[in-house]
Structure formats: structure tokens, C-alpha cells
Design brief:
Dihydrofolate Reductase, subunit A; 179 residues; two-stranded antiparallel sheet; alpha/beta
């Protein structure tokens, strides 16, 4: 069975982006070793990417090549019409629990839950996340888009790995225990 893995970067105070969806704070972090913080190994382990409509629109707005060309991407939205312009990308406005449970039954690699905060909380509250891999950036933003928007349910985690980098970035990997 496929696992749903939340893989995301956040500020030390738990924000995944500024209020205007910008990530300048993440791009501005020094990275003298030019490390990818485990991204490429993670990307090789998945074949499906899940994200909310706002996250999709922000990524498309970066004006770069679509960063997930080898993965099937599903964009979740309550809206029935979203301008999907990227390859292997499909709009989903069905029940999240039923749809993702079916995805997990398929063969292949694991599933990446890429964001945003509202979708992350919906997945967490529906017990759909199996692992959480978060890169904590050494910055406090004070405000922005929270990693867990709205009200997440209490969820017990088991730390499975941690790694720190000279840049101050820390990767934390957790298994979700109460699914």
C-alpha cells in the first residue's frame, strides 16, 4: 500500500509561506554547501503529488518549468473549474477521504502531499497522512500561512530521523501513530 507523505518546509514558527504566498525567506537562506536537503531522494520515492488549488496557482506563478513532470499531480479544490495548465495534472473536487484511500491502494511509489495548510489539516483530520517530513528553516516570520491551518486534531508522532545542516536547516521525519 502506498503511503501519503507530507514533505514541506516551514519557518521555526510554523509558517509555510508569507501571507502573500511568497517564499522569499526560504530562497534567501544561505546554502554554502548547495545541498538539496534530501529533496531529490524524496522525489525519487514518489509518483503522485497532491496539492490544494492555492498551492498549485502559486507554483504555476513562479514562471518556471513545472517541477513535477514525472509525477501524476492532483489538485484538490471545492471549485469545479480551475485553469489546469500543466502536464499530468488533474482537478479533484470529490470527497478527499474516499479519493485518497483509493489512491493509496494503487501500485507504485508513495504519494507526496505538497500543501497547502488547509489541505494538510484536512488530510491530518481525516487520518490520511502516514509520514511527516518537515524541513525547519532558521527563520521566524511572525505571520504567514500556517503549516496546519484551521484546527488540526491532536495527532501523536514518532520521530524516525533528524538531520541538521550547516545552513541551520533541520529535517525532521515522523511516523504518524494514530491513523
Amino acid at each position: 500500500m502506498k503511503k501519503v507523505k507530507l514533505y514541506i518546509a516551514a519557518s521555526l514558527d510554523g509558517f509555510i509561506a508569507r501571507k502573500d504566498n511568497t517564499l522569499d525567506w526560504l530562497d534567501a537562506l544561505p546554502n554554502p554547501d548547495k545541498t538539496d536537503y534530501g529533496y531529490y531522494a524524496f522525489y525519487d520515492s514518489i509518483d503522485v503529488v497532491l496539492m490544494g488549488r492555492s498551492t498549485y496557482e502559486v507554483i504555476v506563478g513562479f514562471d518556471v518549468d513545472w517541477p513535477y513532470p514525472d509525477a501524476q499531480t492532483f489538485v484538490f479544490s471545492r471549485a469545479t473549474e480551475v485553469n489546469i495548465t500543466t502536464p499530468k495534472t488533474e482537478l479533484i473536487n470529490k470527497d478527499i477521504t474516499t479519493y485518497v484511500s483509493q489512491l493509496k491502494q494503487q501500485t507504485g511509489k508513495d504519494i507526496w502531499l505538497a500543501g497547502g495548510g488547509q489541505l494538510v489539516t484536512a488530510f491530518l483530520n481525516a487520518s490520511l497522512i502516514d509520514e511527516i517530513l518537515v524541513s525547519i528553516a532558521p527563520v521566524i516570520l511572525g505571520e504567514g500561512i500556517p503549516l496546519f491551518a484551521n484546527i488540526p486534531k491532536e495527532t501523536k508522532l514518532q520521530l524516525t530521523d533528524s538531520q541538521s545542516f550547516g545552513s541551520g536547516m533541520v529535517n525532521l521525519s515522523y511516523k504518524v501513530l494514530n491513523n
